[in-house]
Protein 1
Amino acid sequence: MAVLTDFAKKDKNPVMKTTTGFLSRTLTIPLCQENDFECTPVVKEGDYIKEGQVIAEVSRDVYGSKSFGVAKIHSPIPGKLICIKNCNYPNGKQGKAIEILLSGSFTFIGKKQNTFDWNSYSPAMLLRTISESGVVNTFSNTYCSSLELEVNKIRDEENKKLVVRLFDEDPSCETDSILTRSEIEKIATGIFITAKTSDVSEIVVAYSNNTKLPAMFDIFQKELFGSLPVTYIEMKSKFYPAGGKRELISAYKKQKKLSASKTKIQNSCIFTDANTMIHVYNAVVLNIPVETVNVFVNGDCLQSKALLKVSIGTSFRDIAKQCGGFVKDLGKIIVNGQINGVSVNSLDTPVTKYVKSISFISEKDHTDRSVGICLRCGRCRTVCKSNLCPDVIYAKIIEGATVDSVYDDSVQLCTECGVCSAYCPSKLPLTQVIKLLKAEK
């Protein structure tokens, strides 16, 4: 396997664009690629599978009407299904996965990419194409669902908006930022397709103040969007949090000088990102299902960092090898950002559709995360953008303290940005506890 450092000699800025990853001999493809749903295999051991073939889909017998719109899972490679086994997921959970041994000829990889006349498609046909291709929305680092489900949520809302964030929610993850710089035409096309699919009345493009986006978008707006209103919002991405739903709506309200409540506006919006728009483009324009993902690989353990385009099911071990291997002892692996990402403990963990970044942190930078006791210092309240009392909620859930019901109800306002946990001197898992309580509501 070649490593990225071999290319770095020719390309001084490898992180300015996507680098295609090398294929592994075997891939382990988790059967859970989005929150709340685990797919059922439609293939069995010993079967020979084509690249792009559907290998798993959600069972209607298990999930009923909730199954409509859940993304299907496609094989990233041709080959033989070796087995269905248990594996560790990148979100910290465990579940079933399909293991495929590479063999046979490819359907898409290495082939000429033909474009399709998608302009003649109706909104329903576009949505069906997106759904059949297995596109999921990766806007949130902590929650991932099918793009079709996101579209259906606001189907009956008035003044629907498509809000597209072209920078990263977590500054340690540079996936969306790099894609915006290198794949802006594909992103613009994906935005228009999604807008047509969801029949929105306005497109909102949120970009970093470090990017001269309006000038880049001008030609695409005239050619693609036509008379559909497009609002550009400049965000100070240097400050965290800046890319959450609440921050984007606040900036939109301020720019438009609106008096409507944030909740009312938010409920009529589809929030998505540059990464998802690339997948929409591939699905509709190129008729290629989601079989690869863009993953920003970084960390002081590696020889180099890069935005790699890798097949779903590729192990973290193989990804690290391509970036030159480890130059320091590995201490921790963090998925989807170092602020509110998930820590995993196995290099054999496979990539899924919702993985956008992997950080390999050395033992030297691996800080002690042993949990202490609450010091009642109030720092978590001071930094909370939603004006919550994370320490009180934590005391109720973990210590069984008796608190007013208003604190229980307030957890729904939490954006799960992770700042309270980061500032806590006792390293209490405040965000994680609030997230658990939210799930029970």
Note: The CA atoms of residues 240 and 250 lie 14 Å apart.
Protein 2
Amino acid sequence: MLHKNWIVLRTFLIAATSGFVLHSIGIFLPWLLGPMISLLLLRQYTKLEFHWPKILRQMGLIFLGIQIGSSFTKKAIELMWVDLPLMALLTFSVVTVALLLSYVFMKMSGETVATSVLGSLPGGLSQMVLLSEEVKSANSTVVMLMQTFRIFVVVTIVPFLTAWIPKGSHFNDGSLDVLSSFNMTHFIIVVVVGIALFIGMKKNHFPLPELMAPIIAMAIVQFITDHPVVEVPLLVLILSQIFVGSHLGLQLEKVRDKLSVRMFSAIVLSNLVLIAFCVGFAYVLTAIHPINTFLDFFISAAPGGIAEMSITALETGADLSTVTSFHLFRIFFILLIAGPILTYALKKWLK
């Protein structure tokens, strides 16, 4: 037990140190990228043993969810209805391009149609793997690799692209400005609603319930009361990013043994094309809807996970509620509509 605790502590020290080094030299998104890249490289090229308890990742997601949820004020939620047609347009466009790129991936990698389609859809790692298990011709291991590596590619590239874009006017440094009006009753309601949502999402295998439950609970309470509940201190946000980044870095365990050069090239190429499409589409949306900035739309369109893209929005000053809303819409669309329809179609087609 003592040996395992030391391994966890060593993992944390390496993650935190790498984050601090990147922060000191001015690298963008250091507390997420530092742990992710350092632990990934050390896991692949050294014999050092690492361990990261699931509870630490969950804690990180919960606090990030609270901070993201704090951006969902009553006014922000009301403005979401204005963006609803754009959410549908952007989601449909990204999903369509992802499906087209799945054909390219299939030709380059030699994988089956089912594996290529389910691996290319930006609908969340856990849910896409579960859907792949329902289709006999789908290789769940390859789907998991595609989904995980896509998140890694997006999280590595998008932050550096956004570093060249001027910061928005929505910047929030995580300070506790709302504590002067802190209401314990509202906070208790958020906790109760959040726990109920978490249990429901966990039972229905919804992706990232630790993140989604506090976001939705905060949004509900703040919309009804029209009153801010709480924000997360900057130090806690940094720790949360370290916790999530460490998990991402260790998730690709011995990836060299599982990824061929052919498959690696197919994954990287398809994701670079998809990111390029998101850049172009963000420019179009900015032209037709100048209320939001290009940065808002670009991070909203980027095919990364909601946690990683929300952290990027938080650090760049993009409108956090807008980015989160677009990603939530895409998750619901893929999980409730596109994913089940494609799974059913693949089963019928294979028969």
Note: The radius of gyration is 20 Å.
Protein 3
Amino acid sequence: MAPARERATLARAGDAPDRTARTAAGDETGSEHQIMGRRYAVDGYTAELCDDLQVVYRNPRGKKLQQIPHQLADTQGVRRLYKLRRTLSEHPRQARVQAEAWATAGTRVPMALAEADSVWREALDDAGVEPAADPPAPDDDETALTARTYVHPDDHTMTLLLRTSFARHWDALVESQEEWALTDTFATGIRVPEDTELPFPERLMAAHPGQEREALEAAYDFGWSLWGSPRIHKSAADDTLEHLATTAPRFLPAFLDEIADLCLAEGGKHKEYAIGYFTRARNAEREHHTKPDEHWLEARYATFADHGALAVGAVRARARELAPRVAGGPGVIAAQ
């Protein structure tokens, strides 16, 4: 039988508390700030995420500013707007990529997904995927995808597809947070191909069995996944990395590698940042005695070398690691 759509009981849109406006002590002592959906204000200065996903700053008289005023600079509220912008930009892109993959593979997609989220409906239409009125049979396999619909205080909704084995961790995290709230969940019957690489932060969770919740909370604090990427503010990312090194050093190499990849993909001036983050990731592995898979590490060095993104110090450190190995051993690279 086709699975019945299960309504989540953690938080329903109609039952959720009103979060459209709140007032609290500001990021700076003595100031007041307000968060109202896509708008953030400190002492009359405002930052607003517009429909075109641009963040606009205004002074107390309402005049548009060309630069961020110091009253708003590096505040949690502004970071929140950029995280939201990143999320609202990335969701359609990821949906398009997934829909195109389904079109190529001939995957049956349930109608419930198109009905739950207009972004998915448009992506499926563009890819030529006709949603099935009778959804695929439920699959309890850990690689099966479960749909989770979340609502933001500004009434924006978004449906994410998560592996069943990670969904409960996401649900518990979202329930405890004040922004995106879980409103609906249903099985899709869609299995993930075995050769598909886990995305971040699921990859971090899989690498730390028994510590999945802690790993996900660290990713949330850093501002990933539902809540976007930290690459917009390098200084903020570095501050968070410093905090992570103190509070959860076991996760530090993975975060450094993720930021290095983001910077490498961005290119341009970010390539220099990628070199630094890659080097710091390897140093963190040595400092905290993390043992990554050797084949994965060799491929990682090769990728960054191909992009000219390896520091001399990183190459020398790698050579010292390889030097003691016996030449000719299986899978071993001998340093000359």
Note: The longest strand covers residues 181-191.
Protein 4
Amino acid sequence: MSNIAIGMVGTLCLFGGILVGINVMVVLGLVGAFGLAALVGFKAATALLSTVFFETTHSFHFSVIPLFLLMGFFAMRAGLGEDLFEATTKWMGNLKGGLAISTTLGAAAFGAASGSSVGTATVFTKLALPQMLNRGYDKSLASASIAIAGTLAVMIPPSALVVVYGILTDSSIGALLVAGLIPGVVFALMICLAIWITVLRRPELAPVDRTQYSLREKLVSLRLAGPLVFIIICIVAGLYIGVFTPTEAGGVGAGLTFLLAILRHRGLRGVKIGDTLMETVRTSAMIFAILISALLFSKFLALSGVTNALGEFLTGLDVAPWVIVVLISIIYLALGMMMDAPALLAVTLPITHPVMMDLGYDPIWFGVFVVLLVEIGAVTPPVGINCFVVQAASGGRVKLEDVFRGLVPFVLAGFAMLLLLYLVPQIALFLPSRM
């Protein structure tokens, strides 16, 4: 059997294993390991395995993942999502669809600190959904706005998912983190615009909140929300001007968020350091295991020649490059309905990244583009994971079909953002090009 044939069989085994429900990490590792053994022999494959394990767990650059995760868990443990929602509600709540817009902006800031799409959706479902429903908001609009707002967590830096992309593609992590800022903010504003237009067309979906807040109340609401936003700005600014590396940025963010958590709980007791560290270790171990398995599979594909063959086939097609981009986008949207984001990147990037580079696209731009694709997939029916999270965290107040029914304007906003990012790549490349 030729090397390419072995590579194709391995790829089919990978997707077959995923479809029958085998854990993505397990099937990636098994296919990669056995595939390498079939290509280069058992001894050489064993040497490659040990190299991948050592490089992944020993490299200083990989420490950025647990540090960003620790920052996020401290933010969630401190209840900073509650502070952000209170602040945005007092400043924006009187607009048409004001509570939904407040949720989007609060989730954008909290998601930047937590880096977790699912975590952000869970927190804001518990915080914002009861408030919206109690004030007469339509169930579909309220729940769908929370589901899509959760996706902002991986767009606005710092983002662990962007770091995963950087590791898998050997791209500059600092540039990738900075690149997500403008697209993330623009996407948040597009979601707010989608809410405003929806409510303008159908005012009955979201009664206007007539509660008035004094300037003093508004300023007081920023007592902890403001410092968290300031921390995020400092991290991005520090990366941009080169004050610290991504790993140092993660350390600074985790340390400052830890101090905010202590202030929020007036001591260490409420922070639950032991539980927070254990959650960080568990999540880091899962991501590292996926990365190790993905790198094994990537080496297997490269040695088999499948990556080069597929790249030559796609780039050799007599079609415009945008057609290839559309095909790749459809693949990500489809798979994003069924897989979590790190696993999806691990499975697809060994194939899609070389193709996009052969077509001449910038790796930093593609990183932002593909992360947005993955997160739109996370809310797209029939399996969008954020939708299930919102429904589960609602305590039975909304049904899954309510969430799906309200997603149409937000998914359209996501597609509009993808188109804008494709037509104006400088949205993602402007800041990295000036670092």
Note: The two ends are 49 Å apart (CA to CA).
